[in-house]
Specification:
By secondary structure, the chain is of the alpha+beta class. It contains seven helices and 14 strands.
Length: 418
Amino acid sequence: MSKMSNPVCSSGPAARRPNRLSLNPIAGLLVLALLLAWSPARAHDPDDEYLQAYSMIQEADALNTSGKTAPAKTKYLQAQTALKNFQREHPDWNPKLVVFRLNYIVQRVTALLEKAAADAAASPATNAPETQPGAKAATADSTAPIKLLEAGAEPRKQLRLHPKAGDKQTLSLTIKMAEEIKTSEGGSGNGKLPVITMTMNATVKDVSDNGDISYEVVIGDTTVAEEPGAAPTATSAAIKAALAGSKGMSSSGTMSSRGFNQGGEFRAPAGGKPMAQQLAGQMQQIFTQLMVPLPDEAIGSGAKWEVKTPIKTQGMTIDQTATYELASLEGERLTVKGTTAQSGANQKIQVPDMPALQVDLTKMTGKGTSERTFDLAHLLPTAGTGKAHSEVSLAFSAGGQKQAQTKKTDVDLWFETK
């Protein structure tokens, strides 16, 4: 994330009130609210007007960190309006600080969309999680056609999953991410995001006569650890808050014998945190994307097949082509290697709940590699790795403020089952 992580600037007239500005965000917000409520007669004091707007930013940050993105967006835009009015009425009051805050608001307001674009780019390529509710990931389903490119060497056979009812697997998945952001104003930031490790416990409930597999998956322990040498960021806090409600989530669904997901939805535990239901949809994407779609035809070692899928997320359309190769086949065990290429054409992005925000996707490219090892007698792959790199360039305009941002994201993941 950007290094402009909302530090409290001490220059200008605001510096004369260190007792107000040196507080931690939560305490500072409470004290400022009390002071402003107690002294309405001072509303025309420029210092107090600025602090009112600043308290809105702090409140929006708190909402954003706790996962309440919709009210956070509203509060950010309220703060933006207040600061723009303040800027017009008091043009000589520490203009650099006011511009800094306005730029910060634009960054925060657009961060969700920017992250959605990067996740859409990185996730399908490596089977990493989708992080935006309502996003349609490039997962294998009954509408994704498979084109067989090469049948491979003899002997060939149709590959089908055939676990037995009662079969259990525990999967441990680790995800590492790093990102770099540059803005048109010269701002930049880069760093490693926290390492996410989670477990999934899968049980095969039933196998139908046509091979469809009914399953149940329960999320186990999840940990979020800072990379050595990496400073905690607002993104780190948001990731930890989001995953805090994941343990105990469960999903019942059906998978075809060719690895096509035919329905399933994670359910949040009763009495969970507000973000739990939003997170549940993301957990379903993680589980589904572990699979590899298998061709209908009989294939052998060296076989290659292709799946083209349009990804539609947050108003964007991204074209993805995934190519798979059967690297080895020994009895029931097989290893599949994959490569993914993605691109997004120039397009305008509509953000339904943010009509004041105008967004243009100017460039989107992504590429990734993956490897999965399967035992056809089990539902989930027994091991896998993935790498992806994406670059997304967006142009934003909100409240008279314009900004262009380019974000590069690298994702590494690995998993194994037992």
